[in-house]
Design brief:
The chain is α/β, with parallel strands linked by helices and 317 residues long. 38% of the residues lie in helices and 23% in strands. The chain is built from ten helices and 14 strands. The longest helix has 16 residues. One of its GO terms (molecular function) is phosphofructokinase activity.
Length: 317
């Protein structure tokens, strides 16, 4: 069995293109589109594969788009298991506006699952003779999946000694945290939703993240802050880093890359500081790549070395 398993209940084929200017009504002549396999857990698995991690992506897919998704994953040589569903897998669409540098992302809800379909993922994991070291639950829940779908998977995996990593949003995030996970990666808006507070100042971010740890909902909270960087909070430590300065081509998949590199590093017994550095490096490397292409290993290693050399970059308190 792979050491790291990712679960994607609502995958997608991600379509990315560009146009000079987005305008209503007019036909807009776009550049040639690129298609990539997408969805939170699938993106995590793609980055893990590039870093040399031992990973298996488990996902639900169906219809013609589902076959396209399988072919795209095979082309990247990403080990995966497709659990079939009756409905058509979704597509997501992003457009880069070249005249302004703005990126527009159009995200569809995904197919409606039956109870048997979403449960097949839980059944697959439970039936594994040898559980993974890490289980990454990432991405949105599709229509038809209950709000506690991730919580059910997390609870069962924890019972077998698996370290569960969670990256989702809304009620699915709050419910899964009640089951308890090893690591959770919220955005600032997601942390605000969990706490019910505005969280304007950095000390408030740290306090809200630490509350999650103190309540036993997660051992590690990795809070991503976009162009303000990120922070990591545990029971006795806080690590803070500003954003790494890069020329942004696309922000798609940066958070997934952060999760992938952090899990990959922790699974290699890296220190928390170095795992954080790798996470920041992978997220920054993904920002360089247009559309949904995600990071390149050489860029990740280059940025990681720069972060190691920058003594003042990582602050521990």
């Amino acid at each position: 069995m792979a050491e790291i398993l990712t679960v994607t209940l609502n995958p997608a084929v991600d379509v990315a293109t560009s146009v000079e200017l987005l305008e209503p009504t007019r036909k807009l002549r776009c550049a040639a589109a690129r298609r990539d396999p997408g969805g939170g857990g699938i993106n995590v698995a793609r980055v893990l594969q590039r870093l040399g991690g031992d990973c298996l992506a488990v996902y639900l897919a169906g219809g013609v788009t589902g076959h396209v998704l399988q072919d795209l994953l095979a082309a990247e040589q990403a080990a995966s298991v497709c659990l079939g569903i009756g409905a058509e897998t979704r597509e997501n669409f992003s457009v880069f506006e070249t005249s302004t540098g703005r990126e527009y992302r159009f995200v569809l809800p995904g197919p409606t699952l039956t109870a048997r379909e979403w449960q097949s993922c839980t059944d697959y994991i439970d039936a594994l003779a040898s559980p993974p070291c890490y289980l990454v639950l990432s991405g949105s829940l599709p229509p038809g999946a209950p709000v506690d779908a991730y919580a059910c998977i997390a609870r069962s995996a924890r019972g077998r000694g698996v370290r569960v990593v969670l990256d989702t949003s809304g009620p699915a995030l709050a419910t899964a945290l009640q089951a308890g996970v090893f690591l959770v990666k919220p955005s600032l808006n997601e942390l605000r939703g969990l706490s019910g507070k505005a969280l304007v100042e950095e000390r408030e971010w740290c306090k809200a993240a630490r509350r999650i740890v103190q309540d036993g909902q997660a051992s590690i909270v990795a809070l991503t802050l976009g162009d303000r960087g990120a922070l990591v909070v545990t029971g006795d430590r806080t690590l803070r880093a500003p954003a790494f300065p890069v020329q942004v081509s696309s922000s798609i998949g940066a958070g997934d890359s952060f999760v992938a590199a952090m899990v990959w590093a922790l699974n290699r017994d890296c220190s928390l500081e170095n795992a954080f550095r790798y996470a920041l490096a992978a997220a920054s490397a993904t920002l360089l790549v247009a559309g949904t292409g995600l990071c390149k290993q050489a860029d990740v290693e280059r940025f990681y070395r720069a972060l190691v050399d920058s003594q003042s970059f990582l602050i521990s308190g």
